[in-house]
Amino acid sequence: MKTILETLKEEGCFKTLLSTLTQANLLTKLECPGPFTLFAPNDKAFERVNLEEITKEKDNLSAVLKYHLLTGKTMASDIDQTERLYTECGKSLTVHLEEGKSVIDNGNLVKTDVECSNGVIHVVDNVFLPQFSGWYCGCC
Length: 140
Hints:
Elements: H1 4-11, H2 15-23, E1 36-41, H3 43-46, H4 51-55, H5 58-66, E2 69-71, H6 76-79, E3 84-86, E4 92-98, E5 101-104, E6 107-116, E7 119-124
Parallel strand pairs: 1-7
Antiparallel strand pairs: 1-2, 3-4, 4-5, 5-6, 6-7
């Protein structure tokens, strides 16, 4: 079984994610034993955000990318059972149901439970931005 990093490279639809992980020096983290859960924005997801703004400052880029990463292996069935997912950047992703499907922050799950030797990948259709964490849940 491949690592999260090997799987991302093999899939071919994560070029922007891999590029930003390289810029933020986070590639080696995804080769570690883990386990981790990665909400991986595909290349189309990155088209929805101002990539230049996100990548302008390395600390900001690192925070954005760590906002997609959880310690531990969280399967899709586990996501459906929770309201918050605690990320490596110290903020939590908010989970809510829309039309019977889990929506995480501002993203939909495109593909779930891609198992890897050091965790699991869930492909999402949007880039999660930690500065907007919880903005739509009416609790802030």
